[in-house]
Amino acid sequence: MLGLAVESWIWYGVAVTVAIARLVSRTLHFGSPKRLQIDDWLMVFVLCVYTTLIVSINIVADVNTNLLPPGFDVSELTEQDIKQREYGSKMVLIVEQCQCISVWTVKLTLVVMYHRLTIARKENTAVKLLAGYIAFGFIFMEIFYLGVWCRPFRHYVSHYWAVPTPNIQCSAAINHLITNAVFNLSSDLIMLGIALPMFIRSELPLKKKMILCCIFGLGIFVILSALLNKYYSFTEPFGSMWTFWYVREVSTAILVANLPFTWTLLRRIFNLRSFDGGSVVLNRWEDRYRETIF
């Protein structure tokens, strides 16, 4: 099994390469970077946060935190030990925020794409409701994480990195992880429930449908990763397996959000035909699909 440093940077290289290919492809499609759309710029923001996540999570893997095992004698900690654990706890806070922001911003980019594809279609109402649910979930999760479960700031000292912390929610973050899992998994399932039937019912050729369904089917692996990172967070809180699944979830989500937008670049490089094959008369939705993604 690869170590976290090796695996995380491999994922990072693949995800960033595909994201850059998306931006280049979209620039070629529109003719200028100035014409890139809001979801393209959101992806640039995701890459910045994602980079911070990868750097931070590799630091977290090698430091101790204020999550102490039962029966741990805090009096044995030296001042240096406490400072190191405070630093590790701060890095965990950064990792958690970067993971949440990355995942939810990727969801937002996909919702923007779904909205363009479903204008004047009955699915558009579902997309709007999904957008509201995703926004509500993120706001609810952040308010409770930063202001309710732990109440981080008291007398200018945060309990999130206090050693020891008076509240287990400040170190183990059990309530936050449950809240995160509920909103994250449910919104992912809804997104799959909208996307896959929409592509299956389209009039694109079978081969093209299969390609798109496989790309968005990677969302199943995203859901699996989200389940496993929470599983290991609860069952092995002092282990490092949760860090691997954090990286896998965010990286795969970035791939899902960017792969459909790379066709223009691939077509230029390999001299491929247009995605619709040039022989199929597309209906209005397929025209909009081609304009939106390619």
UniProtKB/TrEMBL annotation:
Name of a matching Pfam family: Fung_rhodopsin
Keywords: Membrane, Transmembrane, Transmembrane helix
Gene Ontology CC entries for this record: membrane
Transmembrane segments: 6-25, 41-61, 91-114, 126-148, 181-199, 211-232, 244-266
UniProt keyword annotation of Transmembrane present: yes
Localization per Swiss-Prot or TrEMBL: Membrane
Record's bilayer topology term: Multi-pass membrane protein
Domain Rhodopsin: 22-268
Superkingdom of origin: Eukaryota
Descriptive protein name: Rhodopsin domain-containing protein
Organism in which the protein naturally occurs: Cryomyces minteri
Lineage of the species this protein comes from: Eukaryota, Fungi, Dikarya, Ascomycota, Pezizomycotina
